[in-house]
Amino acid sequence: MQIRVFVRKFLVRAICTAMLVSFGQPVFAQLDDSGQYSDRIHLKNGDVITGNLKELDRGKLRLKTRTMDTVFINWVDIESIDSDKYLRIENADGSFSYGTIQHSDLEAGLVVEDHGQETELPILSVSTIQPIRVDESFWRRLEGDASAGIDYTKGSDILLINLSSNLRFREEKYELSFGANWNETSRTEDNNSSRADLNGAYTRFLRDRWFWKASAGFERNEELGLDLRMLVSGSAGKYLVRTPTLRFELNAGLAGNLEEREDGRSKSIEGMIRSSLDIFKYTLPVTRLSANVSIFPGITESGRIRTNTDISLRNEIIRSVFWKLVLYHTYDNRPPQGSSEDDYGIVTSIGASF
To answer: Is 215 exposed, middle or buried (0-12, 13-18, 19+ CB in 10 A)?
Structure first.
């Protein structure tokens, strides 16, 4: 019982801290925005838009402006770019280029300058552009989102609470990501249950769309009789599909699993197979459909298998405010005696991105 109370307090406090960081980040970012809106995008129709270049992804350039908030510009409609930001540019073949763009005429090609050396890239070969803000503060370099949801049913007197947050920190050749999620179900018969997870990952980008990843996380699920799971993993993978509207990646590796369960403590080594699918629509309202599946076949516990699946639909309401629907399912074919083999649910929430 003491372990359960400690774990509950630890995960709730950690997730609340992540939420505060997520909601507080825009405030820190606004303390000093001098020089942040100096990028100039020249369009083929003669218009010029000034703002803060955020990224090029899936055929759209995302630009944050002072007066129009965030706008998405078709890559093919841009004539030239003026920006002194240090950028990481991914090519269609999976290779990377680094440097700044100084009034690059896109009709002739994208000219990237890095320490006095210029590289010209064909426009159609450019897959993504992401700023590496090495000279900015830690808070300004954080990106992510946070959301919260509450559902209540009077007939059954069931209250559902959800909090979630995601943060990203980007460098030249790697990216750090952090995620936190908490679901609490309160019932009149005092049959309450909670589900929470906290995780972090380091992704190193390689050539030809390959990457390797190291991750660590904590998980708690009362429905499955799991007081605490500590999972450390390492894997390698590849982006198999990267188009303006579709992205699919697959990676595999090994994981070390330490569990505190209702029937005792256990340690095990597991295999790990993960896949992620993202489908995008940038016409208003901006929509994103994501599906993530993780499979953990037992190695030292032969015959055991665990799976985690979540499918989310995210729709932008206004500017950076979105509505999200999540369907999740967790399965373990060897849960503690008296506990369920699977846990599933639907969560709705409102959130904001930055």
So the answer is: buried
pTM of the model: 0.74
Nearest to 320 by CA among 349, 285, 290, 289: 285
CB 254 within 8 A of CB 233: yes
**DSSP state, 77?**
G
Question: Which tokens sit at 52?
Answer: 């803060």
CATH number given to 140-353:
2.40.160.40
Neighbours of 47 (CB within 10 A): 11
Higher per-residue pLDDT: 237 or 1 = 237
Distance separating alpha carbons of residues 169 and 162, to the nearest angstrom = 24
Give the three-class secondary structure for 180. strand
Yes or no: say if 293 and 275 are a contact pair by the CB < 8 Å rule: yes
Query: Are the CB atoms for 74 and 94 separated by under 8 Å?
Result: no
What is the per-residue pLDDT across 241-259, written as a single tens digit (0 to 9) for each?
A: 877 678 899 999 999 999 9
The CA-to-CA distance between both ends of the chain, in Å, stands at 39
Q: Where are the domains of the chain?
A: 39-131, 140-353
